[in-house]
Write a structure and sequence with these properties.
Helix content is 70%, strand content 0%. The chain has 67 residues and is mainly α.
């Protein structure tokens, strides 16, 4: 009438074995790609920092004129 439930547990793979398998799937970028992307991030960060500083100076000047 009913299905029987197996009392045997399926063996789980090791966490480290699974991690090792996932690391094998990763396609790592070459040095040229990493250098190019790092340069882009650094330059964008500097540019955004300069824009924020200029905006801050303009806002301070505007408030100093008002008060």
């Amino acid at each position: 009438m009913g299905d029987t439930v197996s009392t045997e547990k399926a063996k789980k793979p090791s966490w480290f074995a699974g991690l090792k398998g996932e690391f094998k799937k990763i396609i790592w970028p070459d040095k040229k790609t990493v250098a190019g992307r790092t340069t882009a991030v650094v330059l964008a960060s500097i540019f955004i920092g300069v824009v924020i500083k200029v905006a801050d100076l303009l806002i301070q000047a505007a408030f100093s004129l008002l008060f």
